[in-house]
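S.,

Sequence below, as promised.
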Amino acid sequence: MKLIDKNGRLFGKISVIDLLVVLVVAVMAFALHQKNNSFTVTASSGSGTTITFTCLAENLDLHVADAVAVGDKMYDKDHSTGGAIGTITAIERLEAGKTEKLKNGTYARLTNEDGCNLLITVECTGSVTDGRYSINRVYELGVNANRSFYTPYSAFEAMVTEIH
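The prediction came back faster than expected:
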């Protein structure tokens, strides 16, 4: 019995071209699987140091503020790491208000009776190099950074006020 017959079939059963197509598809599927899984593993296993940061979300509607809970994972879709940035460890509810610059150049504290401010503390894993904080190896964060954060049940904008 010949390895390849006169019709180009391997062992007289399967076409060599069909076998090559199946092999190429399998290699591509394996490469895609490795790419997706290796990125997630890298992103979720930051190196070494526990980092805690605090962010201030101002003038949140009450239903948004009520949806943020201790123990929730926090995400940032705009600066994605492939996983959660960290876990919310504390939430302090403050009087709603925001300091705004008025048209005349002065600043005023504006209040909102139908909302509140949240001071959210998040714990994560990362590294500190030359005063720069890198969370999950790929997510850089600094004080005064304004970011759009997400939890499983809410979305809000907040400013990082402290990192330690």
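The longest helix spans residues 16-44.

Coffee later?
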